[in-house]
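Lab notebook page, bench 4
Experiment: in silico fold of construct C2
Operator: M.H.
Input chain length: 575 residues
Purpose: comparison with the prior construct
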Amino acid sequence: MFGLATISLLVVSAVIGANSLDLQRADLRQPQRLALSHAGDRLLTANQKSGSVSLIDLTTHKTIGEFRVGQSVTSLTTLPGDHFLLTDPIAHEVIEIALIDDQITVVEQIPVPAYPQRTAATLDGDVIYVSSLWPKQMTRLEKQANQWRETKRLTLPFAPRELLLLPERNVLIVADAFAGNLAALSTGDFEVQAINQFPAHNIQRMQPADDGESVALAHQMLSELAFTNENDIHWGMVMSNDIRWLAVDALVKQDADLYEGNRMHSIGEPGRGSGDPTSIAIATTDDYAVSMGATNQIAIGKDHAYGIWRVKVGQRPTDVIFSADQKLVYVADSLDDTISIVNVKRRQRIGTISLGPQRERTPEEKGEAIFYRGLSMEGWMSCHSCHTDGHANGLANDNLSDESYGAPKRVLSLLSQSDTAPYGWLGKSDTLQVQIHKSITQTMQGEDISAVEANHLASFLETLALPPPIDELQQTRDDAQVAAGKALFTELSCVGCHAPPTYTTPDVYDVGMHDKKGNEAFNPPSLRGVGHRGPYFHDRRCETLEEVIVGQKHQQPRDLSDNEQAALIAFLRSL
């Protein structure tokens, strides 16, 4: 179902074709990633909403074609000979396309583990690596006799997204999609060489720097020590948005000090936040560009020089790329369906390229735009800043959800939460709309949105669905063990607080814990999708489900055998 077969022959190597679309048709495209043709005179866009690729003539700055290649397209990787790799997280495929005479054809559709996000390729294009989000898996594919074969699959302890291949070091850097984990995989045996963590989340678009000695990336940092009041938000203490250069020598060493030899540029300043860095590009001239999705800007600066210049672009920029001569930056304005053209020297937007007319947005799509907007005071953050793509960053923050400061609590996932009211750790919000208004005015200290906008945002949140259970995606589910765990879940009265089908209840309970302000009664988070979450509890005291059941023995009325513990964990991972 999800392309999770064992190592095997995957796809025949034959040109399949692509549907050429009418450039005048009204649609939503949402460009996510950009790539240049080999000659540098064509720009390709990966369009998430329409599953298409737009082709732009950079001599005329006109869109000259659009081609439907999948159900959703979220990344673009360049291969030799004007071939490109795309990821389709709905069809669970990697797609190889070819650009020939201003036409795009689909060469191969390659089933991979579910929810592929990014690809990386060797210089000769014969080996590619794929990150798959919810299965927490990496896949290596090799081209043998002109056919792609999966040669190895690796499961990680975190959900991977961004990739950076460093061929001169024989290492692949893999970034956590939600938290601050960075893994180094050796390309020789495709095994984990090191996993390190630093206090970051929403890591985006890694680039080689310093002649391959450093990795540059954009990210956010959420502090649980700061209060979500005007002072701490204004000074960037609650949420900072940064560019960081990390030494490769540290990244490839287990338990390394990632701060040793690193440097950082903040892309926010008091009074001018810089919410949600979404991509980074670095030129050989030492110039860099960073897109800021929440503030509709890009930042331009120089690596080893002080000062960042902001340039206004379109709505929610998601990618930046330098032109072949590095005098221009092209920006994917995802919510405007345009490409902004920015002059690097003048630090000015000098034009836009339309990908085509847009249709009217649905209430849910209007809510999506609000979700990614910099709603906070001074634009330091959006809803997405803590709830990455609707999920959670695994971190804690201190806000007024418990009507006090001094008791930071873990950020909750928003996936499949529309039927789990009340909301918040203390269960003080009866509807999504009430929680939305509180989050904007109390957590983000922003100007409140209208009731209509709150309804749109709630409609969008209602569309956020959970992926299938983790063991189903990893093909490790044991049905007999799950059944035993389900029976045990009822026997131990876990259903008292976590009642199916939502696996929560609307009350608050004293479960033997308290926060730093003395609160002892908490509303139980839904256990649906609990295998995709972690750490656990309001204070993040347990990293894994094993720690919850075996170490914490959470609310267990009796001691459990090893087999019972394993069965209960298997059941939780099946939800």
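Observations: The first strand starts at residue 19 and ends at 20. The two ends are 18 Å apart (CA to CA).
Next step: discuss at group meeting.
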